[in-house]
């Protein structure tokens, strides 16, 4: 029977309330909740805008099915209010007059998707992005480290992130990659890991070849070459066995070729293998829709939406499924007497009015009910227990779908079942591996804490750190590496760690291997001090340093990593002696590591020493030393020593205080403020600290400084300082540094 379709009038929740307020059949219920004053106010605000819709609804009562546009608009209003079941029930009545175009159902489709989202959102706590990613791809976080953490399959073009986790390159294609295992960000797109790719090709050649064929099949599918794609996918199936990604794309190809039953068979297997994978449910929904199984198709699309599939892609499919279902249910629906139809008497519309007026939902207890029933496992779902022919209304179907959604959300497959295929495929055959496969190219030993650079090459962590002390280029391909890589925390490659564990059984057995690589800690002798050949330093005096030479960058890094934070500072000597015999031990107080790998050190002198044995290690010098202590004076000589000490101290401070302000400021910035005289200075191993501070300012050469470091008499040092101050006061130098320039 023909009927007219007019332009839809947009009716929102407030519009519907205004419609209720202006209708005499609704006024009693409305006034009982809001009162006459509120009713009159809303009536005045919305009566003019919504009067047209009200008149069309009231005027259509005598028109039967000849004019359904007002009822269609009413159904849309219900959908906009979130009343999906009521809207669909009214649409089913309208469909008795004839099928409506699918675009009429956009509002109810959107409301249906929102209903699904709300049902699930109330049941789930806030989860991290990486957990959402795991949920969307339908796998557990306990997946094997030998497979991709996203697709759970054998690696194809593996890339390793900064955190040490490895994925297929096609699974991480964003500019800033976020690890789905730990959530750490990698601010660049890494290159293929050469070592892991060689392991994959060696250990699992069939699966690796199958992944290549699968990629070729996907490319042909995107080019609409379905017959060629099917040949590639079948070849991949017989080469590497079945996997869910292969069956999923093959199901879509079969669907394009019209082989719907075969497509459904593959899709069923995909859902069985990955019950919480959104794309698998979407593919199965497509196959069921093509076979006319609209009930199951709507369920699969709903599950796909819950598990994270793109809603825009799903909306058109759900819209089509709803249209087909409404056609089916309209044939079995009792004829609606539109002439005597009273909206307030309709059960669903009654609950809708309660929703708007009282702020309650007809399904307000639905979530609790579904949660109480969610302990039933997936295969015991009430949806599959009940025959489809027993579902008489679309409202009942929607309720069954909501229950099924809760079952799937609470269904947790065991780790054993979830990774059964991956575990069977990714077994490590030790006979295929050799010890040389695990050798670092820098130290020629077995990997110790393997790390991978962004160019895809793998080294021992210590070897790479050692390389960064000399160059920021990859030792193999000479790719320029960012200096920040040397500063960032490095994580070992989990895949290589797992293979080492499989090969040697434990880290202890691995360390017993005869070809284990060299480690700095193994040859470090605590009796030797690393030597920084530069200048003279003094006890208790600050010594700021800019470390830029590669060998000293390595030396300082090892001093800090070893925990001693101490090294020897010695002045350079003429050939054949590389450095002087006496020096001072410096302790690192602070370190600023710059982006280019250089360091700014804040150090202070601690002890004097004499060099006993010299040797070279990794480009820098080492020395076995003997510490020097001052001789103590007898009690009868202390009065004269105290008198000289006080005179030299006063003379030295007077000389320093007479400096020009800019010179004094520079001295204080470099070596700090002058130390105060200690109470027991005569008993200290290095004497009073102020003498060394003053010696660092006096114009003496390196040889004189070295001789003073070697001297063990405080009396001699005081006399030397006093004599030098006397000469300075008589020279032009004193006038230049203690008076302003003309």
Automatic annotation (TrEMBL):
Pfam families: LON_substr_bdg (PF02190), zf-C3HC4 (PF00097), zf-RING_UBOX (PF13445). Residues 148-182, 440-477 form the RING-type domain. One of its GO terms (molecular function) is ubiquitin protein ligase activity. The keyword Zinc applies. It comes from the Eukaryota. The keyword Zinc applies. Keywords: Metal-binding, Zinc, Zinc-finger. Residues 526-729 form the Lon N-terminal domain. PROSITE patterns: LON_N (PS51787), ZF_RING_1 (PS00518), ZF_RING_2 (PS50089). GO terms for cellular component: cytoplasm. InterPro entries: Lon_prtase_N, Lon_prtase_N_sf, PUA-like_sf, TPR-like_helical_dom_sf, Znf-RING_euk, Znf_C3HC4_RING-type, Znf_RING, Znf_RING/FYVE/PHD. Coiled coil: none annotated. This is Zinc finger, RING-type,Lon, substrate-binding domain,RING-type zinc-finger, LisH dimerisation motif,Zinc. It comes from Cinara cedri.
């Amino acid at each position: 029977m023909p009927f007219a379709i007019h332009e839809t009038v947009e009716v929102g929740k407030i519009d519907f309330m205004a419609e209720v307020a202006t209708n005499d059949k609704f006024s009693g219920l409305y006034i009982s909740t809001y009162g006459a004053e509120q009713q009159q106010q809303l009536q005045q605000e919305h009566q003019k805008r919504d009067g047209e819709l009200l008149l069309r609804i009231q005027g259509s009562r005598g028109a039967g099915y000849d004019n359904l546009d007002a009822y269609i608009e009413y159904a849309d209003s219900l959908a906009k209010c979130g009343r999906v079941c009521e809207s669909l029930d009214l649409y089913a009545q309208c469909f008795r007059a004839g099928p409506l175009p699918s675009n009429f159902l956009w509002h109810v489709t959107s409301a249906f998707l929102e209903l699904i989202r709300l049902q699930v959102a109330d049941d789930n706590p806030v989860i991290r992005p990486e957990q959402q990613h795991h949920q969307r791809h339908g796998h557990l976080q306990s997946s094997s480290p030998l497979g991709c953490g996203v697709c759970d399959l054998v690696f194809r073009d593996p890339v390793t992130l900064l955190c040490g986790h490895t994925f297929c390159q096609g699974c991480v294609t964003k500019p800033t990659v976020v690890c789905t295992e730990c959530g750490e960000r990698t601010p660049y797109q890494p290159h293929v890991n050469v070592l892991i790719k060689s392991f994959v090709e060696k250990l699992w050649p069939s699966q690796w070849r199958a992944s290549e064929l699968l990629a070729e099949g996907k490319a042909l599918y995107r080019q609409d070459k379905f017959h060629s794609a099917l040949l590639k996918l079948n070849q991949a199936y017989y080469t590497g066995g079945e996997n869910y990604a292969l069956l999923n794309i093959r199901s879509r190809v079969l669907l394009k070729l019209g082989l719907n039953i075969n497509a459904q068979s593959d899709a069923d297997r995909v859902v069985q293998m990955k019950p919480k994978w959104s794309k698998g449910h979407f593919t199965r929904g497509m196959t069921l829709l093509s076979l006319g199984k609209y009930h199951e198709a709507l369920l699969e699309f709903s599950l796909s939406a819950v598990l994270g599939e793109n809603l825009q892609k799903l909306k058109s499919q759900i819209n089509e499924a709803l249209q087909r279902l409404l056609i089916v249910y309209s044939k079995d629906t009792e004829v609606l007497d539109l002439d005597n139809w009273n909206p307030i008497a309709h059960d669903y519309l009654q609950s809708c009015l309660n929703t708007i007026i009282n702020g309650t939902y007809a399904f307000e207890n639905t979530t609790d009910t579904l949660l109480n029933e969610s302990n039933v496992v997936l295969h015991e779902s009430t949806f599959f227990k009940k025959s489809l022919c027993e579902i008489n209304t679309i409202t009942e179907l929607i309720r069954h779908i909501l229950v099924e959604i809760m079952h799937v959300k609470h269904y947790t497959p065991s780790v054993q079942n979830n990774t059964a295929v991956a575990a069977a495929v990714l077994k490590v055959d030790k006979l295929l591996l050799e010890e040389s496969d695990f050798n670092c190219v820098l130290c020629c030993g077995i990997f110790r804490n393997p790390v991978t650079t962004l160019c895809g090459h793998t080294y021992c962590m210590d070897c790479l750190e050692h390389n960064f002390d000399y160059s920021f280029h990859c030792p193999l391909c000479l790719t320029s590496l960012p200096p920040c890589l040397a500063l960032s925390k490095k994580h070992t490659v989990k895949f290589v760690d797992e293979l080492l564990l499989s090969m040697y059984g434990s880290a202890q057995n691995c360390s017993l291997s005869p070809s284990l690589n060299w480690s700095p800690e193994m040859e470090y002798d605590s009796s030797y001090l690393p030597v920084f050949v530069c200048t003279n330093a003094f006890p208790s005096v600050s010594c700021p340093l800019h470390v830029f030479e590669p060998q000293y960058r390595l030396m300082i890094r090892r001093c800090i990593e070893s925990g001693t934070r101490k090294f020897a500072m010695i002045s350079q000597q003429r050939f054949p002696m590389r450095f002087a015999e006496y020096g001072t031990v410096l302790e690192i107080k602070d370190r600023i590591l710059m982006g280019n790998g250089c360091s700014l050190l804040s150090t202070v002198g601690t002890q004097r020493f004499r060099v006993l044995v010299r040797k070279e290690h990794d480009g820098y010098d080492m020395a076995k030393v003997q510490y020097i202590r001052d001789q103590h004076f007898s009690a009868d000589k202390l009065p004269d020593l105290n008198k000289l000490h006080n005179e030299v101290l006063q003379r030295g401070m007077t000389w320093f205080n007479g400096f020009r302000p800019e010179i004094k400021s520079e001295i204080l910035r470099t070596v700090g403020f002058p130390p105060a005289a200690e109470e027991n200075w005569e008993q200290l191993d290095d004497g009073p600290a102020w003498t060394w501070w003053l010696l660092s300012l006096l114009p003496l050469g390196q040889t004189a400084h070295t001789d003073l470091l070697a001297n063990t008499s405080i009396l001699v040092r005081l006399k030397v300082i006093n004599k030098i101050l006397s000469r300075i006061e008589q020279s032009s130098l004193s006038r230049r540094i203690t008076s302003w320039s003309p």
